[in-house]
Amino acid sequence: MIHIVILISGSGSNMAAIVRAAQQEQWEARYHARIALVLSNRPDAKGLDFAREHGIPTDVIDHRAFPSREAFDAVLAQRIAPFDADGHRALVVLAGFMRILSAWFVDRFAQRLLNIHPSLLPAFPGLHTHQRAIEAGCKFAGATVHLVTAELDHGPILEQAVVPILSGDTAETLAARVLSQEHLIYPRAIVRLLQSLGNL
Ligand code: GRF
């Protein structure tokens, strides 16, 4: 079984889109993959409620309780470990998870650690992507699903979606347009990865 572990920090709308796709498309029967855990580094993340309502186990590791990134990441790896044992493999999906992960953590889950970023990478890695795209005069924006590597917002691209930037757009209106596309490409990227894992 592939245990999909989704890490969130906030509203979790990408996580919800993945959960819905997994149910509608019967990922468990088709790809032998189950959403095993939704874990947040913020106790008040709204997405936790959605996960609980859908019967998905949840976990919280409040990063503020840790003295260092290393210490937080060590506990994160510990909590994921049971899902990556006994012949099961964990697929770790970052969905609005607002933390940078240690290089050793990225290494441990190499090739099965995914992120979504709200820009057309390699343009605009980092924060405030929508405002930066508008200020640069871009005519198009978008979102990217990629495998995570040690370098922030880099790594092989799995899926992208493009949206226009319209005159009068604000960072908020553009973010909403991009987010609706994120909800389509993230489940699609995961399915493609699950299919390729199945072929190994
Ligand atoms: C998304 O735009 C994602 O690309 C970015 O943070 C936002 C998270 O939204 N990394 P949500 O928590 O999935 O609703």
TrEMBL record:
Q: Which InterPro entries does this UniProt record tie to the protein?
A: Formyl_transf_N, Formyl_transf_N_sf, GART, GART_AS
The organism's lineage is: Bacteria, Pseudomonadati, Pseudomonadota, Betaproteobacteria, Burkholderiales
Its annotated function is as follows: Catalyzes the transfer of a formyl group from 10-formyltetrahydrofolate to 5-phospho-ribosyl-glycinamide (GAR), producing 5-phospho-ribosyl-N-formylglycinamide (FGAR) and tetrahydrofolate.
Which Enzyme Commission numbers does its entry carry? 2.1.2.2
Instruction: Set out the biological process GO terms recorded for this chain's protein.
Output: 'de novo' IMP biosynthetic process
Q: Where is this site: Raises pKa of active site His?
A: D153
Q: Using the record's annotation, list all stretches that form the Formyl transferase N-terminal domain.
A: 3-190
Q: Does the keyword Transferase apply?
A: yes
Any idea which residues are catalytic in this one?
H117
Source organism per UniProt: Candidatus Symbiobacter mobilis CR
The answer to whether the entry has keyword Hydrolase is no
Q: Where does (6R)-10-formyltetrahydrofolate bind?
A: R69, M98, R99, I100, L101, N115
A single Gene Ontology CC term: cytosol
MF terms from GO for this chain are:
phosphoribosylglycinamide formyltransferase activity
- NCBIfam families according to UniProt: PurN (TIGR00639)
Q: Which UniProt keywords apply?
A: Purine biosynthesis, Transferase
Among PANTHER family, the record links this protein to: PHOSPHORIBOSYLGLYCINAMIDE FORMYLTRANSFERASE
Q: Which reaction does it catalyse?
A: N(1)-(5-phospho-beta-D-ribosyl)glycinamide + (6R)-10-formyltetrahydrofolate = N(2)-formyl-N(1)-(5-phospho-beta-D-ribosyl)glycinamide + (6S)-5,6,7,8-tetrahydrofolate + H(+)
Name the UniProt record assigns to this protein = Phosphoribosylglycinamide formyltransferase
Question: What's this protein's family per the entry?
Answer: Belongs to the GART family.
- Look up the record and name the pathway of this protein: Purine metabolism; IMP biosynthesis via de novo pathway; N(2)-formyl-N(1)-(5-phospho-D-ribosyl)glycinamide from N(1)-(5-phospho-D-ribosyl)glycinamide (10-formyl THF route): step 1/1
Positions bound to N(1)-(5-phospho-beta-D-ribosyl)glycinamide: G12, S13, N14
Annotated PROSITE patterns = GART (PS00373)
